[in-house]
Model the fold of this input.
Amino acid sequence: MEFVVLSLGVLAIVGAVVWHVVDTLWARRLMVRRQVLVQLLSGRAVRGVLWARKGRLLVLKSATLLEPGSDPVAMDGDVVIERAQVDYTQVA
Done:
């Protein structure tokens, strides 16, 4: 009886870990190749297509810099942002 209870407990923990990993990876995958608004800690924001998530970096293409009180500025090339500088990310 104890073996059955222990086995069910282990299976429940393994199932929860697998569910968490799949849920996290799926959520990350949903954001890639989508239009996003990245709000930075500095008060600026960058709007563009989230192209890749590489470790602690976000890579955006077709990016536009948004600053309070000024017009949007188109940015050439890819924009690489450290996640430590990100306040939040909004998927459009």
User: Anything to note?
Assistant: The two ends are 52 Å apart (CA to CA). The first strand starts at residue 35 and ends at 40. The chain has two domains: 1-31, 33-92. The chain is about 35% helix and 40% strand.
